[in-house]
Amino acid sequence: MFEKINKYPIGIDIQERQILAVQLQANRRGIAIKALAHAEIDANWQADDPAQSIDALKPPLIKIAKEKSFGGKRVVLHIPSQQLISFPIQFKAAGTEGLEEAIVQESAPYLPFPLEEAIIDYPSLETVTSGDTREYKAVMIAVHRDVVDNYVGLLKEVGLTVEAVDFQVSSLIRLHHHLAGEAPGPAILCHLGMTQTLLVIVSRDSILAQRYVPTGLQFMLGKIADNLALSQGQSNAKGMLQKYGLAYRDQSPENPAGSDQSGETSRLQRVIYQLLSPQLEELLYELHKIIGYVRSEAPGTVFEKMYVYGPGVLIRKLDDYLAGQFNIPTQLLNPLHKMEISNDGVRVDPSEGGPLAMPVGLAMRKVAWL
User: What torsion do the CA atoms of 56, 54, 198, 113 make, to the nearest 10 degrees?
Assistant: First the structure.
């Protein structure tokens, strides 16, 4: 008899302009990062219509497949969020035997393609009322079967075997539970990505709300680089976000320049703050909407905390800024500040760990190997 052993596969996260891959391993202290890989995607690839240009992903995937620090060729995969459809449903079902059928029937009207061509999953299912006929609430995610087949086939071409396709919301929650634990009350998770931001409100047992927002760090970096005519473009802009960010907000009228900084530093803080504030307005608006929705469903809801993940964690003082806007304690979480790297051959600046949030959460999904 062969015994199945749960091991960590390679988590491959296909983003808009890059592919990130992570593999974890268990040690005496928990989970450590065993291997990392990164590959840029050709500009011809369009994340919102990948079927027309999917071959552009082949060279970066070949590069990742050849990375010697990875163990095995089995992977779990994120496909681009632009190809996913997410929607909430509420329905009734008589017993668990009718649950799947009810979910399928309730989901059908939300799909822009035939039901038989869909792959549907529900990362959250909550019982609202009990009895002979129970009422349920679920957060649904759907994708066209051909989209998944195209990605699975492409990875097979480069020598990788897809064990599972996972969704960003599930990976984010998985990472959050590992880094921050499960709070007794609802928490707000904000993955501030490069071109899209994922907002999720979770309780201990369910997803209360989620939505994607078409804004991200890329737009902020571009705004700073263009307005300041930086010689190295967005590379310099990134450094300014780390150094100055939203620190200008902390300056008091009595001490506008700060007690230990130069006038030039104060000027740059003010300029960066003025450039960032309009870019953050859409994020604030969407946060207000999703918070308002949850409170309309459950009046009196008190949020334990807001957690920010993703590339946006490099923005200095973003936590204080959001806490001030919503009166909710806020924390920036970088997985490389919280997790051990077990392989001395992995060389990465811990401050660059923000973009690794999604692939690390994905790589935490174990698969059973013979």
Answer: 170
CATH number for the domain whose boundaries are 5-82+148-180+335-369 = 3.30.420.40
Any idea what DSSP says for residue 255? B
Report yes or no: 23 and 71 within 8 Å, Cβ to Cβ: yes
Q: How many angstroms separate the CA atoms of 209 and 27, rounded?
A: 34
Count CB atoms within 10 A of the CB of residue 370.
Answer: 6
C-alpha–C-alpha distance, residues 6 and 25, integer Å: 11
Give the start-to-end residue ranges of the domains of the chain.
5-82+148-180+335-369, 85-144, 217-331
Residue ranges of E strands in 79-234: 85-93, 118-129, 134-144, 161-166, 187-192, 197-202, 207-213
Quickly name the fold that domain 217-331 has: Nucleotidyltransferase; domain 5 (3.30.420)
Which phi-psi region, left, alpha or beta, contains residue 262 (left: φ > 0; alpha: ψ -120 to 50)? beta
**Domain 85-144 fold:** Dna Ligase; domain 1 (3.30.1490)
The CA angle 24-28-29, to the nearest 5 degrees, is 75
CATH topology agreement for domains 85-144 and 217-331: no
3-state secondary structure of 5: strand
Model pLDDT for residues 183-207, shown as the tens digit of each residue: 778 999 999 999 899 999 998 878 9
Taking 50 as the pLDDT cut, the residues of the chain under it are: 1-3, 252-255, 257, 370
What mean pLDDT value characterizes the chain? 87
